[in-house]
Predict the 3D structure of the following.
Amino acid sequence: MLTAKTKNGKLISLLNEWSHKDLLELNDREAFYCPACGSKVLMKLGLNRRWHFAHKRDSACGSSEAESDYHLNGKEQLYDWLKSQNLNVKLEPYIPKIKQRPDLFLSSPYYTPIEFQCSSISDSHFLKRTRNYMNLRISPIWILGGNRLKRISQNGFQLTKMDWLTLREPENESREPFLFYFCPNAKQFALLTDLVPYSSTKTLAKLSYLNREEASCDDLTQKKLSPIYQFPSNWLQIKTTWRSYSHLKRTPASRYVSKMLQAVSRELSFFPPEAGLPTRYQFWVDTPSYIWQTWLLLQCVHPLRIGQTFRFHDVNRSFQRMLSKQIFTVRKLPLIKKSHYSFAIMDYLLALCDLRILNRTGKTSFVKNSSISLPNTIDEAMHLDKEALHIVQGKRNSQVIT
């Protein structure tokens, strides 16, 4: 950490202009204490690492997480960046009510703690810190370190559970959630938008960069994002990969859906082409879309007669039962308040309307219009995949709001 208190309560910040000699003299005559837990901390003035304060190794303080030079440099640069915009920003302030110290805290134009997270922390620790802020009715901004941005293809990225936890909504309700990164080495922000995951750890997304000098605090809330939901252009390739390698999956969800397909004399590789479609709220569901959507088709649509109606609430309750059995999983997204995993289910039902499998007869009611496809060969499946995606893509792209 970059701040500590003396015995008389004076706050010492290492971001101030200190000489090495002055700090050595200060260290000789003063003891330093953590503003959060009150325990003694050590001033580190080595030649190889940036100067900082550190707890002793056996410290139980919640603020005693080891910080790399990368993290400390990023924190300093973000502080300077916000100060340069004449914003009232504090460095590592202690919030007594929740016993937490955010990396930075904006007190204007709105109260906002800012956390710069470069290393992985447990889900429980992340959720506790975030909920503590929200209990004070303040919403934190988590900025991921640029070292966490893992690109695996032109528009493919690998995300950890913790990365997903930082997903945030822009202030503009018509825009999509996003992830925000900062690299102190490049002095550059990175933004991931239009996220459409195709596994628990991999997602398609749009990546854009913004130099620190060109960015403003408004970019943290992303009021100027691209139009809503861009249909992924290479989704057919994703479906082809699923068909080629689905037999290697050995998860509770894949085993369950495999048995359902076996009941209609099909293997998992021959899942219906109407399944595995990208949806606007797909980021909510951890289970791959070709799995849970195949389940929905076989469980809720296939058994119905043509012309038979059903309600969204019935489908949603069935999905909830799959969650309670721990067959399907959804993501914890504490910063997303304007949607829910049920939105992904509804959006998929609307995609089935685009394919004329269903017709919508009311706000939450549907009627079966035609039967789903059950391909007999991989070639047939891939041909039907292409047709289904072409129809849905055409419908969705025509609905994009600019």
In short: The chain has three domains: 1-64, 67-226, 235-397. The two ends are 44 Å apart (CA to CA). DSSP finds ten helices and 17 strands in the chain.
